[in-house]
Amino acid sequence: MSALRPGRNVNVAGIGMTSQRTRARMVERLRDQGITDAVVLEAMAGVPRHLFVEEALASRAYEDTALPIGYGQTISQPYVVARMIAELRQNRELGKVLEVGTGCGYQAAVLASLATEVYSIERIRELHERARANLRELRLKNLRLAYGDGGAGLEKAAPFDSIILAAAAPEMPQTLLRQLARGGRMILPLREGKADAQRLVLVERSRLGFTETALDPVRFVPLQAGKA
Ligand code: SAH
Known about the structure:
By secondary structure, the protein is of the alpha/beta class. 32% of the residues lie in helices and 26% in strands.
């Protein structure tokens, strides 16, 4: 692994200009697709997505598509990342955030550039470690990575102002609802019906309870129980 680092760094420097330009194009596309939150667009423009995918896929890092990151998992599509974060933000700050499903760490980096504090949890040890390596050079001081089953949330850091799931839950995760602060929001892909249909759902917690809003149909990898 460490033997590969220098080559990777040279390569990164080499495509630096291009990636900045392609990133600007990605942001233009997000705007065309209806993402209007300038703060989210700026954060997406600032995070070098190519650092989070394997070198062989780096040239495709700014396409609006999910890409494989190994272990049967994917890095989320830029539009979906922007859309979910924009929904969480609407008219307020993200505050303290919990992300379930760190994967390669891309979305965690975008969140950390916007939030006060971010906790991100991953159940596959190798991905958790890869995310740590990917994120090292970005030096995000307000981001903490945890290895574990995110279905249980992160009791020691709760309550959270924002919770975001990067994997589709089979049903509304009650433990995570309990870890949501009053006035907080959670966004997640939720499986609907028996088929493998999924929909983004936004949950808002007020003094009076929880309200759920169903948003777009989506396609995420499944939330799985236990550590791997
Ligand atoms: N946030 C990533 C997306 C990763 S894909 C990005 O920026 O692109 C979703 C991730 O959720 C996978 O890495 C998968 O291993 C993880 N995952 C699935 N179930 C989980 C669980 N119960 N707890 C923590 N992570 C989980």
